[in-house]
Amino acid sequence: MSDTHAAHAHGFRPDIQGLRALAVLLVLVFHAGLGLDGGYVGVDVFFVLSGFLITRLLVREGEKTGRINFLSFYARRSRRLLPAAVLVLVATTIATALWCPRSELSEFGLDAAFAAAYAVNWRFAERAVDYLAEDVGRSPVLHYWSLSVEEQFYFAWPLLVALGLSVSRRFQFLRVSTLAAILSLVAASSFVYAAFVSSGAESFFVTTTRLWELSIGAYLALAERPMGGLSRKLGPAFSLLGVGMVVSAAAVYDAKTPWPSAFTLLPTVGTALALIGGQAAPASPISKILGARPFRLVGDVSYSLYLWHWPLLVVGQDWFGLKGPAWGACLCALSALPATLSYLFVEQPLRTAKSLSSQPAFAVSLCSTLSLLAVSSGLALAYEGASGQKASTIGAVELTARGRNLIVTPRKAGAPALGKSPKLSEHGIPQSKYDVIYPAPENARRDVPSAYERDCQTRRGSSHVNWCEFGDVKSRRRFVLVGDSLMIQYADALGAIGKARGWRVETATKSSCPFSKDPSKPDDCRAFNENILRAFRENPPEGIFTTQYGVATAETLRPYWSELVNLGLKVIVIGANPHPPANQSIYQCLLRNQSDYLPCAFPRAEGIELSALPAQKKAAAEVAGVHLIDLTDYFCPRDLCPPVIGNVLVLRQGAHITNSYAQSLAPIISEKLEELGL
């Protein structure tokens, strides 16, 4: 018998190690930024392989003993996966404590705790649709989401297999048929949900959209014997086609490909075909390549390599500024060193230790203790981050009304410090140092309008309008804020104006959804805007306020504005504030440059160009009845946009302004409205 056939006879398949190597290399090339935009399909390859291998172990045990020994199963899984995962988590927590921006310690500490509990995929799913988390940097444990999905599968699937074995014994059904029926129900439900029901960024992370991928591998395990009976003539073709499908998916897909979806069938079915081909023809050319020593060595350390590469990328690229594909490739290559060491001295010794394999209860207890250690280290980091924040510096600006006029307290806080001629004010000149900043930079992301606490903004994936009321809520004079997050940032400021003027100010905004006919926006955004228009036709308000994030075109803005003007509404556009350069977080810049804040200012001209203001000006000039309030001079009085004006931090997340600065703008906006006769 050849070595290859002998290996198959004993259950070891070198080609599977090769597929693991292919999967992890695709992921590393993708994360390094080397141009393989679809390399994320490597994770989907892992899902199919995991479903196959775990189900094969369970089925063989069920056939041999008639039952599933849960304690032994979970002990084997714990010894295989937990030690290396905990090691990387603890090392990452230490690195985070040393080098992470202080403003994100709390978030990343909780990420680590959830990762240690194998529930972090649900945390990232929530963050994906949470506007207030948009500016959180790349989590150093982001890659643990896929491990969480697999662990949740490992917990539930043995229970279903045991149920299937019990049902088959009781009713004398065929075991494979019973398990296949259970698996079909799980897989079909998950696939339909992923492909046709679920939408939005959160669907990428949740377990329910990924179960069908693991189920594909599980199906193959149930059909392992029929696979082995395939003609060896078909095996090579299956292997070649399968690997080709995986590589093609990685080469063709990119960030715009809906995922997971029906498109995910290409790499997952491809992996299945490669598994079938390897089983039927282990000596085929593709199987031999996959089983060659270089691929096997990479496959051996693939788990540790996956664990280590991402934290190194985040630390190097995000915290030390080692940007670009070249550095990405170097950091991924460097991760091979800790991966190999942890494989040799952590993974293998604990996986093969006879003292642990003979005492499954002790093994589970030991690994659970390690997990608790990782959870504790993450919670400690989160506590350290939270306790270090200066909570007293939020909400420093207060508004009081004197008739229709609004007074900012303190008087020189924020925009009023610029006076009547912002371009001549010394407060418009960026400073190298400020005695005090409100809010403190580490608190910037929390200085948001009360609309977020009230859940007024519709989240991604939904088209339901979350109406909220501000100002004089009993008034019959209604003004509605429509648009995206750049509009709702003025909710408290316009609410104060409304209260002083006897207006009821309502909000009807949606995250990442401008009030425009932008064909590039998803279906839920277009449906949301249509719902607003329908509501206005049925019960028109006196007027609307609108603005939007990012670059726009006059062609996408005019249609909705024209319709509202024709309905008799006052359309008031608050010109989009200048945007900082892409990927520049102003508050994080201040944290990194505490000895000199000047590098955190950005050019006015560039900020305007990156915003929707040019398109808004053009559209407002073309649609009679639209009023534009341009506040650019109160963000960038001169050639540079200062990060702090009147001791108030201007920006928080991306181009979004702090609530403190938004409220300081209320008297200026009120004066502009007076000039418009409103």
Compose a concise summary of this entry:
The protein is an alpha/beta fold. It is built from 29 helices and 12 strands. Helix 8 packs antiparallel against helix 9 (211-222).
- Principal-axis shape equals elongated
Per DSSP, the total helix count is 29
Relative strand content: 5-15%
On the 0 to 100 scale, the average pLDDT is 88
Task: Estimate nothing, just give the exact number of structural domains.
Answer: 2
Largest sheet: 6 strands, mixed
Radius of gyration: 29 Å
Distance between the termini: 91 Å
* Uncertain regions spanning at least 5 consecutive residues: 1-7
**Percent of residues in helical segments?**
55-70%
Estimated structural class: alpha/beta
Number of strands: 12
Biggest sheet, strands in spatial order?
A: 3-5-4-6-7-9
Q: Which short descriptors sum up this protein?
A:
678 residues; elongated; Rossmann fold; 12 strands; alpha/beta; 29 helices; two-stranded antiparallel ribbon; disordered N terminus; 6-stranded mixed β-sheet
How does this structure look, described?
The chain contains 29 helices and 12 strands. The protein is of the alpha/beta class and 678 residues long. It has 2 domains: 3-387, no CATH class; 392-675, Rossmann fold, CATH 3.40.50. It has a 6-stranded mixed sheet, with helices on both faces. A two-stranded antiparallel sheet has the order 1-2. It has a two-stranded antiparallel ribbon with strand order 8-10. The radius of gyration is 29 Å and the shape is elongated. Mean pLDDT is 88; it is low at 1-7.
